[in-house]
Amino acid sequence: MASISSLGIGSGLDLNGLLDQLKEAEEQKLVPILERQETQQTKISAYGQLKSALSQFQTAADALNDSTLYESLSTNVGGSAITAAADAEAQPGSYNVTVDTLATRGTLASEGVAAADEGITAADQKLTLNFADGSTQEIDIASGSTLEGIRDTINATEDAGVNATIINDGTNFRLALSSSETGADASIADFSFDGAAPFTSDTANTLQSGTDSALTVNGIDITSSTNQVEGAIQGVTLNLQEEGDSTVSVEQDTRAVREAVTNFVEAYNGLKDKIGDLTSFNFETGEAGELLGDGTVRTVESRLRDVLGGAVEGELSILSDIGISHKYDSGLGYSKLEVDQDKLDDAIANNQGALATFFAGDSDEAGMAGQINTAVEQLLGSNGRVEGAISGAENLNKSLVEQYTRMEQSIEQTMSRYRSQFGQLDGMIAQMNQTSSYLTQQFDALDAQLGRG
C-alpha cells in the first residue's frame, strides 16, 4: 500500500485532504469527553475550596471549645520598673511593686601581666575559686599556660561558677571573672593557686560583690538572688528592669476570648462568602458558579444552619444571647453573622463562666463549639458528604480519562482503516486510468489503420 504522502498520485484525487477532514470529524467525538473532564476538574477544585473554608471554620470553633480559654488571666503593668506574666495559678488582684535594688553579678580582676599570649605558669597546679556562700571550685591549670589559656580553661570547665574574660587596662592584661549567676551568695569572692601564682587577685581595687535584688510588694519586703522573681505574687513572675515603682493588675484575659469569638464569626462569614462565590449566577452574563445547584453545598448549609440556630443548656443558650445574630444581605443574597459588640463585651467582661458553658459546655460536644465541630467532622470525614463528593468527582474524572484513551485508540484504528481503503482506492483508480489510456491508444491506432485503408 502506498504511503500517506503519495496518496492521490495514482488517482489524481486529494485523498490526503479528505483524510484530514475525516480525522477532524472523528476527533469531534473527543470533545464531549474533554468538556466533561473539565467540568469534573472544576468541581474537584471547587469542592477543595469548600473543604478548606469548612476546615478554617472548624478550627475557629474548636478554639472556643477549650474551657481554659475562659480561665486565662493577663497582667497589666504600669511603670517601667518591672514586666510581669501570669500563669494558671494566678488570682485576680492589684499590687504595688517598688524595686529598691537589682540583683547583680560579682566581679573580680587579677593583677596585670605584660602579654596575654605568653606562658605564665611554671608547673601544673590547681586554681581554686572561692564564692561568697563558702563554696569552692577547683580547676586544673597546665604548665606553661598563657593568660588566654587560663581564660579558656576556666570557660571550658563545667559549673565553674564564673565566666572569664581578659581586660587591657592600658598597661597590662588582667584576668576578669564574672559570676555566672546574680546574687550575693553566688558572688565570686577571691581565688588562689596551690603553687607559685602567676598573678593574684586585686581584691582591694577590683572586687565588686554581687547583690540580691530587693523589692516590696504591697509594702512587704522581698529579696531574691535573681531579677526574675517567682512566688512573690501567686502565679505571677516579676521581671525586674530598673529601680522604681510599678503597679501590677492581674485580671481575666478578655482580649483572648474576644479575639477567639471574632475569629469564629469571621471564619463563618468567610465560609458563607466562599459558598456564595461557588453557587453564584450572573443574570447579565449567564456565568454560573462551579457548584450552582449542587446538593453537597445545600447539605453543608442546611447542617450548619441547624447547629447555629439551635440551643444549648445554660444561662446563655443561643447565639443572640451573646450578641451574635444572622443578618440577611440583599446585595449578596445570603445571610452572614453580625456581632453586637456591646452585648458581646458585656458577656465577656461580666459572665465568662456562662460564656464558657455556652461554647465549651461540660464535655467536648455539649457546647455550641463542640456541636459545630461534630457537624463539620461528619461533613468532612471519610464517609462525609463533602469527601464523598470529592471522591465521586475524582472517580468520574478517572473514568473519563480511560474513556478518552479508548476513544483515541478507536479513532486511530478508524483512520488506519481509512488510510488502507484510500490506498486501495488510489491503486485501483490508477490501474483504471492506465487501462483507459491503453485502450485509447489502441483505438487511436485502429482508427489510423482504417483511415489509410
Automatic annotation (TrEMBL):
Q: Can you give the residue ranges of the Flagellar hook-associated protein 2 N-terminal domain?
A: 11-104
What are the Flagellar hook-associated protein 2 C-terminal domain coordinates in residue numbering?
A: 210-434
Instruction: Please provide the record's keywords in A-Z order.
Output: Bacterial flagellum, Cell projection, Cilium, Coiled coil, Flagellum, Secreted
Subcellular location(s) of the protein: Secreted; Bacterial flagellum
A family per Pfam? FliD_N
Oligomeric state and interaction partners are given as: Homopentamer.
Which family is annotated?
Belongs to the FliD family.
Q: What is the name attached to this protein's record?
A: Flagellar hook-associated protein 2
Q: What is the lineage of its organism?
A: Bacteria, Pseudomonadati, Pseudomonadota, Gammaproteobacteria, Oceanospirillales
